[in-house]
Design a protein that fits this description.
Blueprint lengths: L5 E4 L6 E2 L5 H9 L5 H14 L5 H12 L3 H16 L1 E2 L1 H8 L6 E6 L5 H9 L1 H4 L2 E4 H4 L6 H11 L6 E5 L2 H9 L3 E4 L3 H13 L7
Parallel strand pairs: 1-4, 1-6, 4-5, 6-7
Antiparallel strand pairs: 2-3
InterPro entries: HAD-like_sf, HAD-SF_hydro_IA, HAD_sf, PGP-like_dom2
Organism: Streptomyces albus
Protein name: HAD family phosphatase
Length: 208
């Protein structure tokens, strides 16, 4: 594999700012359901969608059947789901990453939901930001499964040790390190940009 420095980023909570919007609680209140009912009824659907075991049409059918929604309310429910999922772009980090393209290999590794690629491409153009986007719903496994890290390295043609992985979830950062990567826990743009710069300059520690 090429001896090339590489930066691989998560999407939600890193390239996208995705605060909780409270949409599920609002739907439970609207439908007269106890708190937690949506997760109990649809949790397995969400998990299946994260690994591509169901398609968007089946997701809508399951939402309709399990919550008793007509077609119009299913569309409204899914619109609220995607509004929270997509959040807003982290413009500062995206602009910084865009400027890295000549200096290193760039990839995305994201735990996702069926339909994410189309929506994120349309909203934010991540396909033009990096060379490879690896979505969990397309490869059938989610981080922190080590296979997810293997797939993104293979598609980029890079060695794990040459990669810096950036994620906002501790268990995923730890899994990347176990897979042989350097990894950084995203807690803000300034620290993340500094860590990426150190990785590319060769001044970063071997781990962390």
């Amino acid at each position: 594999m090429a001896d090339s420095r590489c930066v691989i980023l998560d999407i939600g909570g890193v390239l996208e700012i995705t605060p909780t919007t409270g949409w599920v609680a609002r739907w439970e209140q609207r439908l007269g359901l106890a708190a937690g009912t949506v997760e109990r009824r649809l949790g397995e659907v969400w998990r299946a969608g994260a690994v591509g075991a169901v398609g968007e049409r089946e997701v809508r059918e399951q939402v309709a059947g399990r919550l008793g929604l007509d077609a119009a309310r299913v569309e409204a429910f899914m619109a609220d789901l995607w509004a929270e999922y997509l959040g807003t772009p982290n413009d500062e980090l995206i602009a910084y990453v865009r400027g890295l393209r000549p200096r290193c290999r760039l990839g995305i590794l994201s735990n996702s939901f069926v339909g994410a690629r189309e929506r994120e491409t349309a909203a934010y153009g991540f396909d033009a930001l990096v060379e490879e986007i690896v979505y969990s719903h397309e490869i059938g496994v989610c981080k922190p499964d080590p296979r997810a890290f293997e797939v993104v390295c293979a598609r980029l043609g890079v060695r794990p040790r040459d990669c810096l992985f950036v994620d906002d979830v501790v268990v995923n950062v730890e899994a990347a390190q176990e897979a042989g990567m350097q990894a950084h826990l995203f807690e803000g743009n300034a620290g993340t940009i500094a860590r990426i710069a150190a990785h590319l300059d060769g001044t970063a520690p071997a781990t962390g």
